[in-house]
């Protein structure tokens, strides 16, 4: 008898739980995520870009580098100059690159991956790198502080570089051809 009462109690508890948990949503689901307007997204991106630009300027200042800033937001500092020719759009270049975060940690290094060859402005290389090497004479070494919009943008590289990450490229221009 007790087993039957216990079984009935369990049955009614489960039935009540099923009725309560189903709820009445009339076939729709409610989303708690806010839908942002195009203007809100643009405003947010402008704010983030402004904060990042300030962070980069502070970084360059703290390093004491006499870096030049371009109209795109790239900061470059040629720390080992040369009197060689400068590459232009369409040239192929061979470079040694070490990519670091602003905290100094290394993401990628030519020591591990070797020198890279690419055609300026005609490859999928970071646009900040494409721009920066054009300021460098053959044989020069430079630090390029590249804002995220000129590097890997809002998605990162899906490997070592997180979204919206400004980067420091230490570049040596080995060849122009």
Automatic annotation (TrEMBL):
Enzyme class: isomerase
The UniProt record lists the keyword tRNA-binding: no
Top-level taxon: Bacteria
Listed Pfam families: FKBP_C
Domain PPIase FKBP-type, residue spans: 90-177
Reaction catalyzed: [protein]-peptidylproline (omega=180) = [protein]-peptidylproline (omega=0)
Signal peptide: 1-23
EC number assigned by the record: 5.2.1.8
Signal in keyword set: yes
Keyword terms: Isomerase, Rotamase, Signal
InterPro entries according to UniProt: PPIase_dom_sf, PPIase_FKBP_dom
GO molecular function ontology, one term from the record: peptidyl-prolyl cis-trans isomerase activity
Family: Belongs to the FKBP-type PPIase family.
UniProt protein name: Peptidyl-prolyl cis-trans isomerase
Organism: Luteibaculum oceani
């Amino acid at each position: 008898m007790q087993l039957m009462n216990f079984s009935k109690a369990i049955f009614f508890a489960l039935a009540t739980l099923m009725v309560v948990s189903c709820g009445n949503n009339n076939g729709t689901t409610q989303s708690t995520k806010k839908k942002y307007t195009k203007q809100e997204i643009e405003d947010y991106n402008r704010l983030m870009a402004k904060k990042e630009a300030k962070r980069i300027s502070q970084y360059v200042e703290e390093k004491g580098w006499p870096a030049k800033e371009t109209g795109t937001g790239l900061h470059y500092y040629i720390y080992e100059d040369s009197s060689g020719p400068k590459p232009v759009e369409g040239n192929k270049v061979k470079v040694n690159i070490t990519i670091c975060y602003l905290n100094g940690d290394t993401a990628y290094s030519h020591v591990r991956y070797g020198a890279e060859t690419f055609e300026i402005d005609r490859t999928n290389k970071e646009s900040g790198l494409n721009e920066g090497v054009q300021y460098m004479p053959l044989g020069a070494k430079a630090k390029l502080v590249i804002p995220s919009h000129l590097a890997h943008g809002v998605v990162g590289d899906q490997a070592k570089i997180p979204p919206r990450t400004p980067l420091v490229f230490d570049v040596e221009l080995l060849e122009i051809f």
